[in-house]
Amino acid sequence: MKRTGRNLRRRLSEMTRFADRLVRARHFRGHGVHSPFVYALVRETFMKRGLRTSERALYEALLEAGVAKRRAVQLQNLFSHCGYRTFGLNCAAEVDMNVLTRDFPAERLPEMLGRASERGTTLCVMSPYDDALRIEECRRLVREHASTSVDNRGYLLLFNNYLPKQHFRL
Fold this sequence. Notes:
6 helices; 6 strands
């Protein structure tokens, strides 16, 4: 079998993706997560394929905003698991959980984190890897955030609770 440069490049790129998978593999099914709070999130929200409760308000709002069904299910389960009562999409209102969709400008992310920190609410940034500016702003949010943050590739969760500063990449 002849190996061409194109095939070799493809195989090398697959190996770099494999290395990324290995780094994240320790968090699969909650193994390697040494926080009971985050372990429960992984088991009760991220690993569930269906809605855990009959409550569907956040789920339907996220689907209307163009969020994928799987992510909408996970966030609705998170909403129920944490016992939140109110949510908002791209808003500055006082809610338990504020979801910033892909359409929300990256330049305003630090401002929204400041508001969420003052109020003690959870901030969810959808599509944190969309473009270079959004990636850099999300990294800055994680660096400056005083409590627990969870990066689930599809969204970045920034909790403002009693937990110490920790960052989990799942």
